[in-house]
Design brief:
Number of domains: 1
Radius of gyration: 17 Å
CATH superfamily: SGNH hydrolase
Strand content: 5-15%
Shape: globular
CATH class: Alpha Beta
Strand order of the largest sheet: 2-1-3-6
Structural class: alpha/beta
Distance between the termini: 13 Å
Largest sheet: 4 strands, parallel
Amino acid sequence: MIFTFGDSWTAKWQDHTPWPELLDKDCKNFARAGASNRQITDQVSEASLDYPDEDVEAVIIAFTSINRMTINISVNSELCISQHPDPWYADAQKRVFDDNVTVKNVMDYSLYNFHAIECIVAQVWDCPVHFIPVFEDTEFWRKQETFLPHSLINVLYFEEKKRYFMYDCPVYELGYLQEPNTFGQAWLDKNVDSNWRKAHFERTDFSMTSKLFDNTQHPNQQGHKALANYFNKVLN
C-alpha cells in the first residue's frame, strides 16, 4: 500500500483521475486541494491515527508552495494573492511576511514540518518517505536525503521538452507576476535572486501552453498519467 499526501496537484481536481489512483500499486490518497504544508503535516498525523496498522510500503509527500501559510485551522495566507475579497487578507499577508521574514525562514518552517512527517512515518509505518515539491526547484530541497530531485512541474516539463527548467525557483505560485501583486514582488525582490522573474515566467508559460495541463494550470489527465509513470519508477 502506498500513502500519498499533498494539495490540488495530488487530490481529485475537476474530472481528472489523480496520479495516485493511476499507480501500479494500491494507494490511499489523503491529499486536499488548497492544503498548506502545515495542513499536509496534519493529513499525515490524521492518517497515522486512522490507519496505524496498515502495511504501508512507502509514503509520498507532494508538498505545496512554501509561501502558503496556515493562519488558523481553516484559513491560509498566500503571498501570490494580490486581490482578495476579504479586507483583512492584505493585512494578514503583511503580518505573516513582514520585513524580518526571509525565504530561508520560510523554507526552514516547511522543513520542520517535514521532519515531523518523517518521525510519524518512521514510528507508525516504518517505511520510506519521498518528498517532492509541486513547484519549487532549489538546491535547499535537493540536498535533503529523502527529497526527490525535481518538482512535479519540472517532471512534466521534462516529459514534454526532454530537458529541465533553466532556472531554479525557491518560491513559486501562479500570481506573483500579476501587475497588482506589488507586495509579493517586493518580497521576492528582497529575498530571492534576480532570476526569479525568469523562473516564474518559464513555469507559468509552460503551464499555460502545455498539452499536459488543463485551463486552471493543473495537470490534465495526460499530465496525471505522466506523473503516475514517474512515481512508478520511483517506487520500483
